[in-house]
Recover the amino acids of this structure.
């Protein structure tokens, strides 16, 4: 097992979660935090892939001569 040093702020946060009774010990708090970090990264990565596809579709539309005047789009949204 690896030993890490926490900042006083993070240590206080971990202690607060343990004292709340929701987590049994420091390790459980850290594990949950890392699980949530992984989940967030998967969500961001998925959204990034969606955006890349949308950009590629937009570029293809431009190549095919399909384009929209941005002023029309802004007028519709406002």
């Amino acid at each position: 097992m690896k030993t890490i040093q926490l900042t006083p702020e993070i240590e206080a946060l971990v202690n607060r979660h343990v004292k709340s009774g929701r987590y049994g010990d420091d390790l459980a708090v850290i594990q949950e935090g890392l699980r949530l970090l992984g989940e967030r990264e998967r969500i961001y990565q998925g959204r990034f892939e969606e955006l890349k596809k949308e950009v590629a579709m937009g570029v293809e539309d431009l190549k095919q001569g399909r384009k929209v005047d941005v002023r029309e789009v802004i007028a519709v949204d406002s």
The chain has a mean pLDDT of 92. The chain has three helices and no strands. The two ends are 56 Å apart (CA to CA). The CA atoms of residues 52 and 58 lie 10 Å apart.
